[in-house]
C-alpha cells in the first residue's frame, strides 16, 4: 500500500513465497524454525490455508502466503524493486496485482485500499490485466460480486 496507494499504519508484512504444490511442509517447517508462530497450530493452519502466520524478533507480524497458482507466479515475476530509503530497497508486486490480491480478499479494509490505489494510480493502471487475472480467481471462489464491486470502483474513479 505504501508504494501504490495511500500509506496507512500497519504492523504486519504480507509476503508471497513461491512453494508450488507439494513442498508446503518443507517451507513451512523451515520458516517455523526461524520465526515465532502466531498460533499454537501454525503448521496445521499453514498447510490447510496456505498462509504461515509468524512473528519476527521485533514482534512484527509476518503473513507468508505459500504461492503456487499461476497468478501468484506471474505476480512474483512482475514484482519490481522499490527504493524505500537511500539504503533500503524492497521488491513489491505491481499496483495491478495488489488490486487483484485486495479485491480477491474482499474485506472492508481491502476495498478501501483498492479505492486508494485506483485514486492514486488512475489511468496508469492496466485495467484489462487486473480483470483478466481476477476473473478466474473469482470464478473459483464463486463470488461474482467481487467483479461487480471492482467495476463500480473503476467507473467511479476512472470515468472519462
What proportion of the residues is helical, as a percent range?
40-55%
Q: What is the number of E strands?
A: 6
Strand content: 15-25%
| Terminal residue distance | 25 Å
Q: Could you state the order of secondary-structure elements as H and E?
A: EHEHEEHEEHHHH
Main sheet characteristics: 4 strands, mixed
Radius of gyration: 16 Å
**Helix count, DSSP H or I runs of 4 or more residues:** 7
Spatially, the strands of the biggest sheet line up as 1-4-3-2
* Overall pLDDT confidence: 95
Task: Label the structural class.
Answer: alpha+beta
Shape: globular
Q: Can you tell me the residue ranges where pLDDT is under 50 for at least 5 consecutive residues?
A: none
Task: Describe the 3D structure.
Helices cover 51% and strands 20% of the residues. The protein has 7 helices and 6 strands; from the N terminus they run βαβαββαββαααα. It has helices at 24-34, 42-49, 70-78, 95-105, 108-121, 127-141, 145-158, and strands at 12-18, 36-37, 51-55, 61-67, 80-85, 88-92. The strands form 2 sheets. Strands 1-4-3-2 form a 4-stranded mixed sheet. A two-stranded antiparallel ribbon has the order 5-6. Helix 4 (95-105) packs parallel to helix 6 (127-141). The longest helix is centred in the last third of the chain and has 15 residues, at 127-141.
Q: TL;DR?
A:
The chain is built from seven helices and six strands; from the N terminus they run E-H-E-H-E-E-H-E-E-H-H-H-H. By secondary structure, the protein is α+β, with helices and mostly antiparallel strands.
Amino acid at each position: 500500500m505504501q508504494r501504490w496507494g495511500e500509506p496507512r499504519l500497519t504492523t504486519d508484512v504480507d509476503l508471497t513465497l513461491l512453494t508450488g504444490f507439494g513442498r508446503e511442509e518443507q517451507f513451512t517447517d523451515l520458516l517455523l524454525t526461524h520465526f515465532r508462530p502466531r498460533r499454537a497450530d501454525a503448521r496445521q493452519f499453514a498447510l490447510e490455508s496456505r498462509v504461515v502466520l509468524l512473528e519476527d524478533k521485533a514482534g512484527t507480524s509476518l503473513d507468508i502466503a505459500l504461492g503456487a497458482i499461476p497468478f501468484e507466479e506471474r505476480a512474483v515475476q512482475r514484482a519490481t524493486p522499490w527504493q524505500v530509503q537511500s539504503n533500503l530497497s524492497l521488491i513489491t508486486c505491481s499496483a495491478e496485482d495488489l488490486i487483484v490480491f485486495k479485491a480477491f480478499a474482499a474485506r472492508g479494509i481491502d476495498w478501501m485500499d483498492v479505492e486508494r490505489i485506483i485514486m492514486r494510480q488512475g489511468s496508469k493502471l492496466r485495467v484489462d490485466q487486473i480483470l483478466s487475472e481476477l476473473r478466474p480467481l473469482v470464478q473459483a471462489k464463486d463470488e461474482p460480486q467481487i467483479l461487480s464491486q471492482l467495476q463500480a470502483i473503476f467507473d467511479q474513479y476512472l470515468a472519462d
